[in-house]
Specification:
CATH class: Alpha Beta
Helix content: 25-40%
CATH architecture: 3-Layer(aba) Sandwich
Radius of gyration: 19 Å
Distance between the termini: 44 Å
Largest sheet: 7 strands, antiparallel
């Protein structure tokens, strides 16, 4: 009985190691854009260093202001979840949601050209857009907060510019 438990444990370890090799290591989100690039996306001269919110999420905020109430940019690197790869997670993000929501809660997904292998802006109701990008086996999301809600075009342009900087550091 003990031998079979050991064999199962070795098999599980082998599967985990193969999965890690297949997907590669998840990039550190705080190491992808620089603070200067995050500041440019926010339209401010200085931002604090990137702050890990977890292993996959980093945020930069306007220097001297709380991130919750000031301008902030967040970068979420998609990591594997169970057997789902980052590319599969991106596909799920990109998939349209049936339009049965009221306009204030509607989820609108707009394809983006010229960014990665595939990209989409997602906007919920009257909120600000979030850019999701797939490049090779990697995926990430960028969102800018604290700018006026009526500045959608500006937010989209800045998210796209930051995404291009992030992609330059991805394999």
């Amino acid at each position: 009985m003990k031998a079979s438990h050991a064999a199962i444990a070795r098999l599980g370890l082998a599967v985990a190691l193969c999965a890690a090799a297949a997907y590669g290591a998840t990039p550190d989100p705080c190491a992808l854009p620089t603070s200067a690039q995050a500041g440019a996306a926010l339209g401010v001269a200085t931002v604090g260093p990137g702050k890990h919110l977890n292993a996959y999420l980093c945020a930069w905020g306007e220097a001297g202001k709380p991130m919750a109430s000031g301008k902030a940019v967040r970068l979420h690197v998609l990591g594997p979840v169970g057997s789902m790869t980052p590319a599969q997670m991106f596909h799920n993000i990109k998939t349209p949601v049936p339009g049965f929501f009221l306009p204030a809660h509607a989820i609108v997904k707009t394809p983006v050209r010229g960014v990665g292998d595939d990209a989409v802006y997602e906007r919920v109701g009257y909120g600000t857009p979030e850019l999701s990008v797939k490049k090779g086996g990697n995926g990430f999301q960028i969102s800018i907060h604290g700018l006026a809600g009526n500045q959608t075009s500006l937010i989209e342009a800045r998210e796209k510019e930051l995404a291009l900087a992030v992609m330059a550091k991805l394999p």
